[in-house]
Each structure stands twice: as C-alpha cells, then as structure tokens.
Amino acid sequence: MKIFNTLTGTKEEFVPITPGKASIYACGPTVYDYFHIGNARPFIIFDTLRRYLEYQGYQVTFVQNFTDIDDKMIQRANREGITVAELGERFIAEYKKDAEGLGIRPASVHPRATEHIPQIIQMIQTLVEKGYAYEIDGDVYFRTKQFQEYGKLSHQPLEELEAGARIGVDERKEDAMDFAVWKKQKEGEPAWESPWGMGRPGWHIECSVMANQYLGHTIDIHCGGRDLIFPHHENEIAQSECCNGVPFAHYWMHNGYINIDHKKMSKSAGNFFTVRDIAKEFDYPVMRMFMLSAHYRSPINFSKELMSQAKASLERIETCIDTLTFLRRGQDAPLTQEEQALMEKDYTARFEQAMDDDLNTADALSVVFDMVRDINTLINDGQPHSHQLTEHFLKEFEVFSGVLGLFGQKKEQGLDGEIDALIQQRQEARKAKNYQEADRIRDLLKEQGILLEDTPQGVKWRRE
RNA sequence: GGCGCCAUAGCCAAGUGGUAAGGCAGAGGCCUGCAAAGCCUUUAUCCCCCGGUUCAAAUCCGGGUGGCGCCUCCA
Predict the structure, then answer these.
(1) Direct distance between the N- and C-terminal alpha carbons of chain A, in angstroms, rounded to an integer
(2) Which 314-353 positions of A have CB less than 7 A from strand B?
(3) N or C: which end of chain A has fewer CB within 10 A?
(4) Rounded to an integer, what distance in angstroms lies between the CA atom of residue A381 and that of residue A216?
(5) What is the Cα A89 distance to its own chain's centre?
(6) How confident is the model at residue A71 (pLDDT cuts 50, 70, 90)?
(7) Is residue A7 within 8 Å of residue A251, measured between CB atoms?
(8) A410 CA to B8 C1', in Å?
(9) In contact, A198 and A185? CB cutoff 8 Å
(10) 194-253 of chain A touching strand B, CB 7 A cut-off
C-alpha cells in the first residue's frame, strides 16, 4: 500500500524493514480525563491502518503508550485529592471502555511512562554522555543545536523556529529551542530518583524509550495527530536518532483535526465533546463511521447533523446485512444468472485499491455502498434467493467489516419466544383482515424497540 | 514574522490531465391493508474568482479572495 509520509511529503509504497512484519508506534492518550472525539480520530484511523496491514498478511506489532505522568496529570490528581497513579488507573480503565465501543482493538502493548523510568534515565544518560543533553540544577535539556537534522519532520528551518520562540523561556537554557528531557521535582510532585536528583521525565522522552524497547531502534511507522509533528515528534526523532545513531522511523503518518465550527477542537479551547458524552446520543460505531467517511488527512467538521448523516449511512449497510441474514434463514432457491453475475463482481479489488491509496476509507466505503445497492436491487423482488448468494455477500461484508471495524458486528438475533408469539398473533389478525389488532401489536412491539417489516418472505424484525 | 493546508450540489465527500464516485436530505413513482425497508427516476453543462500551459484542466502553473493550522500543552 501507499502511505503519505510526513517526513518526505510524498506518497510512498510501504516497504517494511522486515518482510511480512510491520512495527507501528502510535502516540496514545494522557490519561487525566475522558478523551474527546478529536483524540479519538487517530485511535480509530491507526487502528484501521493496523487492521488493513493485518488483512494484507503482515504480522503487525502495534504499540500505543499511556502518558501517565505530566503536568495535567498532577494538577488533576491534586484537584481530586488522589494520587497521580490512582488517576491514571481510573482513566486507563475509562479509555478502554470507550476504545472498545469504538472498535479500537487493544494494542499489542500499552506501555506506561511510569513503568519505564529506569530505561528513560538510561537514555537520558546516554544523551548526556554523547553531548546531546546537559544538566542545569536538576533539570536536563536536549541540546537541539547539536542535532543537525532538527526540524526535518516539520520542515521548519531551525533559525525560523527560534525567531518564533516565545518570551518566557527558561533563561538558563543554552538555547531557546532546547527542550526538557528530565524535570526537577517541584513541591508536591511525584518524583523518581535519578543521577540529577529527584525528578520526573519530560513528555517526549517516554515515546522514544518505549518505542525503542518494544520495537527496536528503527520502526516502520510512527503515527499521531498533526499537532504532534512539532515539537513532540520532532523531539522524539532528535532523542532517538542521537541516542541510537540510526533512523527512528521510516514512515510518519499524521491525521487531520476534528473541528467544531471550523475551528480545531481542543481541551484548552474548551470546544470539545468527549466520546463518552456523544455515546449517550449516538452509538459508538456511528462515531467510527463519521471518522472513516472522510480521508484521514483532511480536517473534518464535527456536528450533530453530520453524526445523524453517519448514522443513516451506517444503518443502510446494517439493513442490507440484516436482510441477507434473514434470507439465509428462509427458503433456498437455485442460483440464477443474475445472482451468478453479481457474485462475480469484484468489489474486493476496488475496496483494496482504495485502501492501498493512503488508506482512502471514504472511497472504500463508497465501494461498500455500491455493493449494498446492487444487492438490494437484486433481492428487491421479494422472491426467495439462493443461499449461495447470501453466504457469498455475508462473507464479503465480513471482510470489509474486519478491515474497517464497522458494521455487521451484531450477533444474529436469536429466536425470541415472546416476540415470535406476538408476531404470530399479528399475522393471524392480518389474515383475518383485523388490521386494527395487527397495528396494535405492531405498536406494542415498537414500544419495546422492535420494528417489524412485512416482506413476501415473511416478517422481518429488528431492534431499535 | 516563518512554515503549511484547504475551497467540488441543500449537507457531507471521493476524484488530482481525458470530459463529475458514493452517502445524507428533498421531490416524483413502484411495492405495501397501512407502514417499514428497498428499488427506479430526479437534484453540479460543471468543481471559489481571474489569467496562463495543453488537442484536452475540477485536476498543472501564476495571481487574487475566503477559511484553517503549526511555530506554546494539544490527537
């Protein structure tokens, strides 16, 4: 597949370091609160990347960290009167609930910063020894001037970065662009012992260390949100490459933002919706549908209206799957020419072509919709259809579903005695042309969230 | 100030040199006891504007206009 590589600014064919294997590092959440839908975008997108690479036969090692020590963690923990560790535990658990709902599979490893303090200290020590980092009164900074390639990911000339640097920088630093890799303990902060005294790691160093530990010196793909390009990812590159002397990651992938009223959603701006809150109004898969309906690098505007659109779209696919499932339970029929012809159409090839093109999920979904319409057109006649046909397309949906992490997850509805009895009763009433009674039963079921559809093949029902 | 992105129908969104995919919403029709679901038809002579290159441009180049982002914690 082709990947747009932020490092080179071009689309490139993905060639892994080790044939048949792919190593991916994705920056995970800081677990100080529920995550918002802007945070959810990279989780969903890169989970889809992982699924697609696995579908293509790669053995994928996917690492996503939990940042469980930083300023925000400390603030929040203090505010709630609990320890940073307790806060972390709590929101890691909450992350997992939302992630599961969104169809985000657990990573191969979910390392936590606080569980890698010795390794972090060791990497900092190496950097200090090599002259890439220096200590000032318990703080340790990275010497950006020492790394010639600093700025290669964000494509910013170092001088210009300096020109834009803010006032209020720590005057003790050798250079305004230098960043902290180790922070001296302040009053009331959790801290660990180190060669530079009590302190805690800077933000950027944890990713360098954990990527290194679980994936090696050089990894295939590193991904995250666009806002991490500078300085976070730039700093990761500096630390890792100066420490190990080899390229850190071959491919860098960055997703676009989620906007609200065309402005970037962010915690600090306050214009955000948590995934947990949206889930009260829309099912989790609707959020995933929303995310996948546009290309991952484009910014997308979030609104309830767009969620409703995503919901209706998703239902269109689910309904088609439901109908196929329903037909498969019903009467079989010999395979017709039309059915044969439809089964020979190669939706999979088009789907793969779209996904191969830098994960074009919007285009891939359009293939699914084409298939849905073609199936519906064929089975619209109310006749029984070959089980061979229904099997074929249910399998096709399963493939697409496995890659996108969407639709078709619902378990086949078991036979429910009570519902069946009522449906039976209603059928009797209909036969006797007692439509008042028939409608009464239909309304009764509707109140319980059971929707009925009368089809020539029998009565089909679905929940919600 | 530096660097960069985006502009396609009422809404969303693919397409990036060969004559506008797909979804949502709307309208009309078919089907239905009525519904629901679905199907069919319909909705951009045209892709922000102005120039240019080309046999050919929404797609490339130049210039505008509008919107957004990074340079600071941020997915």
Answers:
(1) 39
(2) 315-316, 319-320, 323
(3) C
(4) 58
(5) 21
(6) very high
(7) yes
(8) 36
(9) yes
(10) 203, 224-232
Give, in order, the Cα–Cα distances in Å from A370 to each of A325, A363, A383, A392, A408. Answer: 19, 11, 22, 16, 17
- 3-class SS at A95? helix
Q: Is the CB of A112 under 7 A from strand B?
A: no
Cα(A41)–Cα(A53) distance, rounded to whole angstroms?
18
**C-alpha to C-alpha distance for A370 and A155, rounded to whole angstroms:** 40
Beta bridge partners of A66: A112
Q: Which two tokens stand for residue A312?
A: 């209706």
Q: Say if residue A231 is preceded by a cis peptide, omega within 30 of 0.
A: yes
Residue A313 contacts strand B, CB under 7 A: yes
Closest nucleotide to the alpha carbon of A266, via C1': B74
Three-class secondary structure of residue A64 per DSSP: strand
Six-digit token pair at A349? 């090839």
β strands within A14-90, DSSP E: 21-26, 59-64
pTM: 0.95
- ipTM of the modeled complex: 0.95
Rama region for A94: left / alpha / beta (φ>0; ψ in -120 to 50; rest): alpha
Distance A366 CA to B46 C1' (A): 22
pLDDT tens digits for A115-162? 999 999 999 999 999 999 999 999 999 999 999 999 999 988 777 776
| Residue A239 burial (CB count, 10 A) | 28
Q: Which residue from A188, A211, A210 is spatially nearest to A200, judged by alpha carbons?
A: A188
* Number of Cβ within a 10 Å radius of residue A417: 8
Q: Is the CB of A376 under 7 A from strand B?
A: yes
**Identity of the amino acid at A22:** A
Q: Is A30 exposed, middle or buried (0-12, 13-18, 19+ CB in 10 A)?
A: buried
Residue type, A146: Q
Say how far residue A230 (Cα) sits from the centre of its chain. 21
Query: For A354-406, what is each residue's pLDDT tens digit?
Result: 999 999 999 999 999 999 999 999 998 888 999 999 999 999 999 999 999 99
Compute the distance between CA of residue A79 and CA of residue A76 in angstroms, rounded to an integer. 5
A157 touches strand B (CB under 7 A): yes
Could you tell me if A232 and A248 are in contact, meaning their C-beta atoms sit under 8 angstroms apart?
no
Pairwise CA distance, residues A388 & A385, whole Å: 8
